[in-house]
Design a protein that fits this description.
Strand 5, helix 7 and strand 6 form a beta-alpha-beta unit. The C terminus is likely disordered. The N and C termini lie far apart (45 Å). Helix 3 packs parallel to helix 9, helix 4 runs parallel beside helix 5 and helix 11 crosses helix 12. The chain has 341 residues and is α/β, with parallel strands linked by helices. It has two domains: 128 residues, Aspartate Aminotransferase, domain 1 (Alpha-Beta Complex), CATH 3.90.1150.10; 192 residues, Type I PLP-dependent aspartate aminotransferase-like (Major domain) (Aspartate Aminotransferase, domain 2). A seven-stranded mixed β-sheet has the order 2-8-7-6-5-3-4, sandwiched between helices. Strands 9-12-11 form a three-stranded antiparallel β-sheet, with helices on one face. A two-stranded parallel ribbon has the order 1-10. Helix content is 41%, strand content 16%.
């Protein structure tokens, strides 16, 4: 099993801090997500119904000609590598690790790429797999650039797979409208923007023959009835979506400004999280954890990803903790320099 954010119970044991006292900024999930209403008794008691209107609501929300509801995009991430012969897959060196892990598990050859290497290696690839915006670095690709890469791959029966888990804040940058083109596969999820990670609802946007192949592999009832009911309602709540995009944009700017106050300069452009490189990233993570704040650490390069605080109290807690952490790191530096002298 790969490491993921949100492992609060492990952190609580490691740092001996009660579970309820933690501020979890490790996942990039909207902390002020959509409020789930009461779920009907029928959703719990009946088998999930495919003709309940969920797919139509999702098509309208994403602007996708065809799609398949799955148990979170993770379900598709695990199955897609099984749907084509072993080949060469290009993936960014630092990206959502489940993609690489699952393609590698099925015997595909992985080529790790930097963004500026994609173009020169495209002819070697059977599949190009990108997260847009990238998690954790926040790198974005334009629609026109992605469609050019897709055309190149599709001419050789290749695939462009784009994971748009963090795209809901900027739907104008999505490939969803083009997702019925052969060899183009777009993954979406309700976990991040809507703050509904526990619903385990995602969608695969692609041409119908591939969706049928995926459906056959996954079998019936991939999504529970309660999840289908919640998903349909949230996808139709246009007013909430518009309001939340504004709120997340402001919160993202606030987090960026706060980090820059302590010379922790984030890169990329994602409202739900900020990522920055720092030689003392591991020390920063540890210091924050001792103060009850969980953030996500990456070792290559040494860097951290922080999600958004939920309440004003949480924002103050993060501000104080960052100030304490920077003082601690500076103190260590001065001590080390004194010892060297």
């Amino acid at each position: 099993m790969l490491e993921h954010g949100g492992n609060l119970r492990q952190a609580a044991l490691e740092y001996d801090i009660p579970l309820e006292d933690w501020l979890d900024l490790s996942t990039g999930i909207n902390p002020n997500g959509w409020s789930v209403p009461n779920i009907s008794a029928a959703a719990w008691q009946q088998l999930p119904q495919d003709n309940d209107g969920l797919e139509l609501s999702a098509q309208q929300y994403y602007g996708a000609p065809s799609l398949l509801a799955v148990a979170g995009s993770q379900a598709a991430i695990q199955v897609l590598p099984r749907l084509r012969p072993q080949g060469t897959v290009g993936i960014l060196s630092l990206s959502y690790a489940e993609h690489r892990h699952n393609w590698q598990q099925q015997g595909h050859k992985i080529i790790e790429l930097n963004v500026d290497e994609i173009e020169s290696h495209l002819s070697e690839l059977d599949v190009l797999l990108l997260v847009n915006p990238n998690n954790p670095t926040g790198i974005r690709y334009t629609v026109s650039q992605l469609l050019l890469w897709h055309t190149n791959l599709a001419e050789r029966n290749g695939w462009l797979v784009v994971d748009e888990a963090f795209m809901d804040s900027t739907p104008e940058n999505s490939l969803s409208h083009f997702s019925d083109r052969p060899g183009l596969i777009v993954l979406r999820s309700l976990g991040k923007f809507f703050g509904l990670a526990g619903v385990r609802c995602g969608f695969v946007l692609a041409e119908k023959p591939l969706l049928e192949q995926l459906r056959e592999y996954l079998g019936p009832w991939t999504l529970p009835g309660p999840s289908r009911e919640v998903a349909q309602q949230v996808l139709c709540d246009i007013n909430w979506q518009i309001t939340m995009r504004d709120q997340l944009r402001n919160a993202g700017e606030r987090l960026k400004d706060l980090l820059e106050c302590y010379s922790l300069n984030p890169e990329g452009d994602v409202d739900l999280f900020k990522w920055f490189k720092h030689p003392a990233a591991k020390l920063i993570q540890s210091s924050l954890a001792r103060q009850g704040i969980l953030v996500r650490y990456f070792d290559k390069p040494a860097s951290l990803r922080l999600g958004l605080p939920k309440t004003e109290k949480d924002w103050v807690q993060l501000d104080v903790a960052l100030e304490n952490t920077i003082h601690e790191i500076r103190g260590r530096k001065i001590t080390n320099e004194s010892m060297a002298v």
